[in-house]
Amino acid sequence: MISKTALKKILARGITSFRVDVASRKLLWRDRVAVLLYHDPKPDTLDYHLTYLKSFCDVVPLAHVASPGSGRPRAAITLDDGAAGNADLLPVFIKHNVRPTIFLCSQIVGRPTMHWWLHPGAKQAGIERLKRMSNAERLAELGKYGYHQTHEGDGTGLTAGQIEAMRPFVDFQAHTRFHPILTRCNDRECEQEISVCKSELESMLGTECEHFAYPNGNYTDREVGFVKAAGYKSARTCDLGWNDSRSDPYRLKTIVIDDDATLWWFAAQLTGIPVFLRYVRHARNFSGYSPQF
Ligand SMILES: [Zn+2]
């Protein structure tokens, strides 16, 4: 039986040896914007990813997603969740002159609360199982293991001081209050998570919060409606693809990058092929949920 790591290596070598990565840049990526999605990469990893990326691509802010291209591939760097480790990336952003967008959960950053899936109880209960429950069931189940979303203790998000230090170099935007799976929330929970997050972040940051990212990539027309009604100008999904001026601003597409991707795997992931194969293998629709199975 071949291990997952070995399969990844074979796929990555195949893609780069046959120059599929170069061909996909010409045929698929062109001068559109690849919105790369990270979570909590190590500074060294992000450093060599950005060095490689800049050798053939312009790295642009997320807000430029609908601007006309110049013929070169473009990429925007986004990080979801506001993990505490993101603070260590600041020297890398400055070194590469890259302005990333970090999507924050307004009730998890700036206070000692936890991202729910990082609580030991979430692992015991099964993270993917919890994602499939209704929001109330998930919270009740986590409560059995001692997790309560407003309880303070060990913090897993960026502190207020870290956010303040990063603000001149980072675009902070919205990713709900507590990171529920929005499609498992009732209407009221869903609307509150989307709209209250905006006002809470705006009062924390003192600037307008215009962009949103759907937690875990889960959304339907209902979530899109709430995002529009709350006054956001765009929203990023986890749907595979590239973006240009014709893209739906409330369904921006993404290339998910593994936080620990080797250079070979990073080059392979930029083609979109690994995620595409996961979709095909699991015979699922291509939109509205995260491609992590
Ligand atoms: Zn997230």
From TrEMBL:
Residues 72-233 form the NodB homology domain. InterPro entries: Glyco_hydro/deAcase_b/a-brl, NODB_dom, Polysacch_Deacetylase. It is found in: Secreted. One of its GO terms (cellular component) is extracellular region. The keyword S-adenosyl-L-methionine does not apply. SUPFAM superfamilies: Glycoside hydrolase/deacetylase (SSF88713). Keywords: Signal. It comes from the Bacteria. GO terms for biological process: carbohydrate metabolic process. One of its GO terms (molecular function) is hydrolase activity, acting on carbon-nitrogen (but not peptide) bonds. The lineage of its organism: Bacteria, Pseudomonadati, Pseudomonadota, Betaproteobacteria, Burkholderiales. This is Polysaccharide deacetylase. The keyword Signal applies. Its main location: secreted.
